[in-house]
Amino acid sequence: MSPDQRGLLGRRGEELAADFLRQRGHVIVERNYRNKFGEIDIITRDGDTLVFVEVKTRKSQRYGGAAAAVTAKKQRQITMVALEYMASQPRQTATRCDVVCVIIDTVGQIQLSLIENAFEAAL
Description:
Structural class: alpha+beta
CATH class: Alpha Beta
Largest sheet: 5 strands, mixed
Number of domains: 1
Radius of gyration: 14 Å
Helix content: 25-40%
Low-confidence stretches: none
Distance between the termini: 32 Å
CATH topology: Trna Endonuclease, Chain: A, domain 1
CATH architecture: 3-Layer(aba) Sandwich
Strand content: 35-45%
Strand order of the largest sheet: 1-2-3-4-5
Mean pLDDT: 88
C-alpha cells in the first residue's frame, strides 16, 4: 500500500472512530492534537474522564491486528503528549488511554472495537 493509500485509510479510520466514540457518549475535545512529543489521534471527555484515544486502522487482522501496533514505544509517546496537553489545561481528576481498533477489509466491511484503559501511562 502506498503512503497516500495508508493516509486515506488512517483518516477514514479516525472518522469512523470519532463517530463510534460519539455514539458511546464521548464528547470530542480535540482531533489530531500535536505537540513537541508527537500526536494523539482523538481526545475526548467520557463523563468526568479525559480520554486520550489512539486509533489503529488496518485492512485485516494479519500481523496481530490493530491493537498489536500500540507498542511500548507508542505508549510512551502517547503518555508524553498527554502529559504536555494536561499541563496546559485546567486540572483533570481522571484520565485514561483507550485504543479504537478499526478493520476495513477488502470488500468494505467495517469492524470497530474499543479497548478502554488499554494501557497505563508509561514513561
